[in-house]
Amino acid sequence: MSSFKKSAFITKSYNVSSISQEYTLKAIGSSNIALIKYWGKKNGQIPANPSISYTLTKSHTCSELICSPRKNKTDDFSIKVVFFGKERSDFLPKIREFFKRILPYCLYLLDFDFVLNTHNNFPHSSGIASSASSMSALALCICELESHMGITLSEDFLLKKASFLSRLGSGSACRSIYSGLVVWGAHEKIIGSDDHYAIPYPYEVHKVFHRFNNFILLVDISPKKVSSTLGHKLMNKHPYAKERFLAAYKNIQELIFILKNGDVEAFGTLIEHEALSLHAMMMTAYPSFVLMKPDTLKIIEKVWNLRREQKISLYFTLDAGANVHLLYPEKDIEKIQDFINQELPMYTLENKFIRDSCRYD
Question: What are the structural domains, with CATH classification, of the chain?
Answer without folding.
Answer: 6-200 (3.30.230.10), 213-359 (3.30.70.890)
